[in-house]
């Protein structure tokens, strides 16, 4: 398209660009419209108008305008660049890259388009494309170091180590004057080059290069760590020992350094005498370090363990360290050490009590004596509360003794709250944790812990109120809005799980979706670092970030939220009425299940009418807010669905579950629970090939797992019942059927197979429960028999309170009689008298 006809309009167009860059969108829109009144068919101005409108939140309108601009001027690189920016704003990076590439064909020398294309390629991990873009950028501006480094990173990430190293070397050779020794960017580039050499497998060359640049390094710790690892790999153990000792002088509590030193000295794990001697010497050299005293407790035994444990534990108790038991509990996997540890502390307690301070002793001595007793009691209480040595009666008795001596220590009440949690009284646990919080109201950790316990007691409002004590409450949505801005994933996950337990599935899905969005935001947040890190020269940190981002959804909180969300969606698929709050809460849910088919239909129609009214009201309110906020780009974003009603009222719950399931399976395939939930979703979608894939993966991970066993039986019945005629369900190929037959042959008598499993797993409550669920699935008429066996299983030693509560849920799903439920609760009360779940 021809340029604007007069200089005034050209100046105005430059102003539009300036207003956009400075985020003055109203002024930019007004100026663009002023140009368009005189030049209505100027595509580039129309495109900029669309871009600004997109920034004002009117995305659909923006796309329409920019498409019209493209029709007016298909050969304008500005229009195509803007089109790419629009696609980028809606996170459709594939389409954005296509638009950028077309814009680049029209204007090959445009640095802005090339930069935007390169950033998207890095974001999408299109390393080959990124290499080409970086070559072009280097050709345009070879005087910028970041362009050389950027190309090296692109080559490194694409696996071309040799050329990546060569690019960095060429830049170093091009420098006429060597940078000063305090030049951080240059030092980081040299160390990054060394990392590339090492990752290419050339350890000896990496060491030679490191020795040549060692004097210029500002990151001394990383340099020494690289040096030690290279020496160790090359078998130069004496030199590696010296480097590791130097590192220990810088950080005497880094366990990796101790492990490296052991390896460098050629000490094997089973050479206890040599390891003991080594750590005794290190403890003398590093008198204030914890690790050289703690590590030997892992490999010592008998009297040697007792001697070392006594020195270590009593030292911490006398210092009043609340973490004494947390530091030691890992050794409890050795049962002999459990008794020795307890005896050490009990002997210290008895000795301390037997030698009280004299009457004329100072107040400081008397206080110290009392504190020693309190911390010893605290340690013993935690010992009895720990799952390997649990005796809650003794734990409560001991912690109460400690509280009586010093009722001002928050740690004592925190531990007591944990004991109530293990006893099954979550309400009492929350109350006790609140007592701890009130002793130190300015402590954020105590407040957070109290909020978590309150949520575990299913008090969502109480948990939010506690969190509000440490938030500014200025964001849209109040305290919750602040927590969303702070991306507080632990709170959102716990809050969602509390709503899930209360059958408030809309709010549960809302929280899990918010967690999902936070992980998406974290993935998008790396976008700015593709240029920022290169500009600042923090290359190794940037590469570490890229690798971390590639495994982002392996995070435990994503896994928790995704599994929970998939459970909710499968529940909605099985029981659609739970999507209606009026039919899913407490007694109403139970009453609904008792209705006849006709009455259920009537109740569902009524619930849908109520839902439609609520949706219309919500849409009116949203439209009103939109009108009020029209044109205000900096206004607070208001959530139009705060209760998750749109999420829970979905007509395609299983398809919606895929948003969580696909990344969950991709990044967490090594977890049985992930494969189990994948099976549950896919089997309901009748995607039998995908369900079998999950089942096979789960069986490989844990062939004896109860969930896998129960799903094997269900799948066997489904395969056997598949019709020979084509249906809407995904067909299973002969290869897949043969693969499944290898797990559970077609001629297997599944009833006998399940009975054998029940006999084999008679002492494992979890596996036994799943076996009984399979028994009920195979023959619902044997419900009473299966229920009776489940009641007996509560007395198994391996049954913990969490699994016992799950067993109660199973009985309710089976619609067991009140008599059976009462027997189960009675058995539960026998094991856990304080547990609220088993109260009549």
TrEMBL record:
Q: Which domain of life is it from?
A: Eukaryota
Q: Where are the TPR repeats?
A: 77-110
Keyword entries, A-Z? Repeat, TPR repeat, Transferase
The UniProt entry, under Pfam families, shows: NatA_aux_su (PF12569)
User: Could you tell me which InterPro entries the record lists for this protein?
Assistant: NatA_aux_su, TPR-like_helical_dom_sf, TPR_rpt
Taking the record's annotation, the residue ranges forming a coiled coil are none
Biased segments, Basic and acidic residues type: 609-646
SUPFAM superfamilies, per database record: TPR-like (SSF48452)
One annotated GO molecular function = transferase activity
Q: What does UniProt give as GO cellular component?
A: NatA complex
Which region ranges are annotated with the description Disordered? Answer: 599-646
* PROSITE patterns, sorted: TPR
PANTHER family, A to Z: N(ALPHA)-ACETYLTRANSFERASE 15_16, ISOFORM A (PTHR22767:SF2), N-TERMINAL ACETYLTRANSFERASE-RELATED (PTHR22767)
The name on file for this protein is N-terminal acetyltransferase catalytic subunit
Task: List the source organism.
Answer: Ascobolus immersus RN42
Tell me the organism's taxonomic lineage. Answer: Eukaryota, Fungi, Dikarya, Ascomycota, Pezizomycotina
